[in-house]
Amino acid sequence: VSEADAAQYRAALPGVRAEILCVPNAVPAPAVAPATLASPVIVAAGRLVAVKRYDRLLRAFAAASPSFPEWSLRLYGRGPDRARLRAVIDDLGIYEQARLMGPASPLETEWVKGSIAAVSS
User: Fold this and answer.
1) Spatial distance between the Cα atoms of 98 and 44, rounded to a whole number of angstroms
2) How far apart are CA 85 and CA 11, in angstroms?
């Protein structure tokens, strides 16, 4: 993974005839630090369309929220179901805890603000 790792293996295995090379990670380091998991926030993101079933996520959150009043839900995205989802939030009375955040770019900085990533589709 690093030249230091390769050097350590070379030193630990002096009798090995094969050449020990450094092969760097193919995946770049993350642009943001990982989530601390300290904030009581659930994050979901995607197109606000029926197939994503965010209404079900909102109903599940509403059912659980009395037992976990410190938790909130942030839903990122845009789409034709925004008004309908806003009405679901209002009808369920979770407007203090559930927020339609709109689109975010880059989204990575928003994902790490949550402790739970929710997928409802």
Assistant:
1) 11
2) 61
Domains of the chain, start order:
41-117 (3.40.50.2000)
Amino acid at site 68: F
Q: What is the DSSP letter of 31?
A: S
Instruction: Say how far apart CA 103 and CA 78 lie, in whole Å.
Output: 6
pLDDT tens series, the chain, 121 aa: 689 999 999 999 999 989 999 988 888 888 888 898 999 999 999 999 999 999 999 999 999 999 999 999 999 999 999 999 999 999 999 999 999 999 999 999 999 999 999 999 8
One-letter amino acid identity for 37? L
What pTM was computed for the model?
0.76
